[in-house]
Design goal:
alpha+beta; Jelly Rolls; 4-stranded antiparallel beta sheet; 26% strand
Length: 154
């Protein structure tokens, strides 16, 4: 990323759940491994079963996450990320993510993130703790959805 874009995105980047608690210099350091990416409305970003080689941080626009049967699981707005679970585990994509509007954001490649986290133990600990908290939040939300849908069938 260019320095100008990097500076503009540092404050947004610091608010990304996976990267909360990072210093400005750590956030700028992490942004250096990012590359900008845009998608047009209705374009598929990730499909179920795709390899998890990157995570996407949405800076502008809206994404929709759907399950195997086409059920809408979530709407993702600016300042959120998708793909962090696969980046952590290496498991294939568990959902399809598509652009609801034209979107722009940054991509962090798994191999670059792994290398960065291996080089800085404190940064690795903070990022992994943040990602674990995010995944736990999503699990709680999924449980609420399951209970809601199970109640409808009674």
């Amino acid at each position: 990323m260019t320095d100008e874009n990097s500076q503009a995105n540092v404050s947004v980047f610091e608010k990304i759940h996976a990267f909360q608690g990072l210093s400005r210099s750590e956030a700028r350091y992490l942004l250096r491994i990012c590359r900008q990416k845009t998608f047009a409305k209705d374009e598929t970003i990730y499909s179920i079963g795709d390899p998890s080689t990157e995570m996407f941080i949405l800076l502008q626009g809206e994404l929709e996450v759907t399950g195997e049967e086409g059920t809408v699981l979530a709407h993702i707005t600016s300042g959120s990320s998708v793909g962090e679970m696969g980046v952590l585990t290496g498991s294939p994509r568990s959902a399809t993510v598509a652009a609801v509007t034209d979107v722009s954001g940054v991509v962090i490649e798994k191999n670059q993130l792994d290398a960065l986290l291996l080089s800085d133990r404190e940064l690795r600990t903070r990022v992994i703790e943040n990602m674990l908290a995010l995944l736990c939040e999503r699990l709680v939300e999924a449980n609420v959805h399951i209970e809601h849908f199970a109640g409808k069938d009674l």
